[in-house]
Amino acid sequence: MNGAEVRVGIIGGGLMGRELAAALGRWPALIDHPVCPRLTAVCDIRPEALDWFRQIETVTQLTTDYHELLASDEIDVVYVAVRHDLHESIYADVIRAGKDLLAEKPFGIDGAAAESILDAAAAHPEVFVRCSSEMPYFPGAQLAYQTIASGALGRIVSVRSAFLHSSDLDVHKPINWKRQVATCGAAGVMNDLGLHAWHVPLRLGWVPSTVYADLENIVTERPGPDGTPVACDTWDNAVLHCRVDSAGSSFPMTVETKRIAPGEKNTWLLEVVGMDGGVRFSTKNPKRVELFAKIAIPGGGTEQSWQQIDAGSQSAWPTVTGGIFEFGFSDAILQMWACFLAERAGALGDRFATANPHEAAMTHRLAAAAAEAHVEGRAVAVASPAAANS
Ligand SMILES: NC(=O)c1ccc[n+]([C@@H]2O[C@H](COP(=O)([O-])OP(=O)(O)OC[C@H]3O[C@@H](n4cnc5c(N)ncnc54)[C@H](O)[C@@H]3O)[C@@H](O)[C@H]2O)c1
User: Residue 42: CB within 6 Å of ligand 1?
Assistant: First the structure.
């Protein structure tokens, strides 16, 4: 690998910390990337979580105290993947230590935490901060985004964006930090999955003017560590009906995030229909992109038609993978990191950028509007960033 070396540290060596370490091991798959990342340090408060990282030869620091990691001169970029209630303090400490940061969503447990992280970033403009959101890097999602952004769909008629899974269909599944307000946040599933569903709409400039929401807590108790039921007090499902006023037109947009969507394992989907065309993509059929058009029928006339194409393996950054091969979750993580580190190096060009801190913070304003809308049973205006800061 020829790119400039970037030394990466991880805080939180759980599910996502290991995913990043694995992605960095596949870095040579990227063609002509300007940066060569090297994982040098990992912190987790559980010593047993650190053991997995011993197999990675470039790691020279394993610690249970993240302050030790931040004191190291051997780290340029830090990835933090910890519980939501820890985001605010750890992200701010990373920024104050002068390390660049790829934060995990939801970028703070609530809106106040997100604003406090934004303040820390504003006080350190030399620090590069972005937030993880990898699903838009599926090639089908990239094709959908480019189709929409081109304006080819004409006046937008309707939008549906969703992230759906059913990890919580099993009512006997033990409680964990992702299912409790104190550690996940009052926004519940909107904290877990919100940025996944909002990233592309926000990037298109589709900030809703109003939100109406239906929120559901379907499973209210789960077995605790000793089997005794404990409160499972977060929202499981959230359906937000939004009104978007954009580029001289106004249209409805539905944004769904669900932990209990029977039949769905981990489905990210986007469907946008306009007067001149439509596009839809779902990771349920990860190769397939559907395009709507009015087509000429042999023999005469035109008809409405949804047509299917196969998106291959190529996403934002080119890889050595054969163009016709399939793409998956771990490829999306690699692509997100390729774009994060390329943007940091000033070499992203017009490729799709990782979610920025303001996009991440916006998801908290939307969740707050949804919570109010749910309680009051009416559509609620979304706070503008200026109002939220006042
Ligand atoms: N981008 C995605 O697709 C995606 C998927 C899952 C989770 N996430 C996000 O990633 C973050 C972490 O989720 P996860 O599933 O990896 O959680 P996890 O519970 O699997 O891992 C979290 C790790 O953090 C460690 N930890 C706790 N406190 C710590 C501290 N003070 N210092 C260092 N380590 C500490 C825990 O011991 C644990 O190993 C969350 O913000 C979550 O929303 C993102």
Answer: no
